[in-house]
Design brief:
single chain, mainly alpha
Length: about 60
C-alpha cells in the first residue's frame, strides 16, 4: 500500500492535480446522468414489464 501512496504523491507533484480534478468533475457528472437514466427511463420500463410495480416510493 505504501507504493500506492508514493506513486500518488509523485502524480500530485507533477502538476497532474488539475487533470485529476477534471476527472472527478466529469465522473460526478457521469454519475448524475446514469442515475437519471436509471430513475427516469429504466425503472418505469421495468415496472411496466413486471406488472405495474412502482419504484418511486421507498
Amino acid at each position: 500500500m505504501t507504493k500506492f501512496f508514493q506513486e500518488f504523491r509523485e502524480f500530485a507533484v507533477k502538476g497532474n492535480v488539475v487533470d485529476m480534478a477534471v476527472g472527478i468533475i466529469v465522473g460526478g457528472a457521469f454519475t448524475l446522468i446514469v442515475q437519471s437514466l436509471v430513475a427516469d427511463v429504466m425503472n418505469p420500463l421495468i415496472g411496466l414489464l413486471v406488472g405495474g410495480v412502482g419504484f418511486s416510493k421507498p
